[in-house]
Amino acid sequence: MIEKIKPMEIEKRSFEIITQILGERQLDPENEAVIKRAIHTTADFDYADNLVFSEHAVSKGIRALKEGCDIVTDTQMAKAGINKQILGSLGGEVHCFMSDPDVAAEAKERGITRAIVSMEKAALLPKPCIFAIGNAPTALISLKEMIDREKICPALIIGVPVGFVNVVESKELIMETEVPYIVARGRKGGSNVAAAICNAMLYQIRR
Predict the structure, then answer these.
(1) How many CA atoms lie within 13 A of 122 on its CB side?
(2) What is the rounded distance in angstroms from the CA atom of residue 6 to the CA atom of residue 142?
(3) Does domain 7-206 have CATH number 3.40.50.720?
(4) Is it the case that residue 4 has pLDDT exceeding 80?
(5) Residue range 20-73, pLDDT digits in tens
(6) Which string of DSSP letters, residue by residue, matches 94-159?
(7) 3-state secondary structure of 70
(8) Torsions phi, psi of 160, nearest 5?
(9) pLDDT mean over 172-200
(10) b vs e for 126-161, b when ≥16 Cβ sit within 10 Å of the residue's Cβ?
(11) Where are the domains of the chain?
């Protein structure tokens, strides 16, 4: 039988169902909201196992957001999905340089992906950023190279690209850094997951 639920109660009921299905599974309290938001976005309970967090990554991400950091994404979809009202109230904004004409031109000239050039452009932003990567493993590879060269120091990297080519390897590279990270180990992820993780932190601030 289809439940009759008021629109405002649908999300609350969804999270109740997620909690019920998880049963006696104990999640780290600091990471719980992020994990459940990823599950809510995807209806995929594998995220209870494949989301990997560096020490206090969520707390560090929330602190950076409160201090007005920006968010950089690798897709317009992720940018669209992030709650810009809350982010803006904190002094931050979302950037996605993938469609910029100068990025496309430089990528073509150098024979590399737009994601690499986008990360290089983001490295020039004047304040620390959270990088929410849901599509392009080359974005993560570029970030790792710039971190190693001390060209960039992200406030947090959300590494959740989805796919088959260099996806698993790029995520593992990020986990080798000293930078705070939230990574979806394996092939799963996506722009929706990247946005969901950002929103999970923003909603905790709003509450």
Answers:
(1) 35
(2) 45
(3) no
(4) no
(5) 999 989 999 999 999 999 999 999 999 999 999 999 999 999 999 999 999 999
(6) EE--TT-HHHHHHHHHHTS-HHHHHHHHHTTSSS-EEEEESS-HHHHHHHHHHHHTTS---SEEEE
(7) strand
(8) -135, 40
(9) 97
(10) eeebbbbbbbbbbbbbbbbebbeeeebebbbbbbbb
(11) 7-206
Judge whether 159 and 187 are in contact, CB under 8 Å.
no
Give me the catalytic one of 18, 30, 40, 166. 40
- Give the angle subtended at the CA of 80 by the CAs of 111 and 50, to the nearest 5°: 80
Residues in a beta bridge with 132? 73, 158
* CB contact at 8 A, 139 and 133: yes
Residue 110 class from Cβ within 10 Å (0-12 exposed, 13-18 middle, 19+ buried)? exposed
- Residue 206: the pLDDT is 85
CA dihedral 90, 143, 156, 85 (to 10 degrees): 30
What gap in Å lies between CA 188 and CA 37, rounded to an integer?
15
The rounded Cα 183 to chain-centroid distance in angstroms is: 8
Q: Is 95 a catalytic residue?
A: no
- pLDDT digits over 127-140, tens only? 989 999 999 999 99
Q: How confident is the model at residue 207 (pLDDT cuts 50, 70, 90)?
A: confident
Number of C-beta neighbours around residue 29 at 10 A: 8
Q: How many other C-beta atoms lie within 10 A of the C-beta of residue 202?
A: 23
Q: Which of 171, 148, 146 is nearest to 161 (CA)?
A: 171
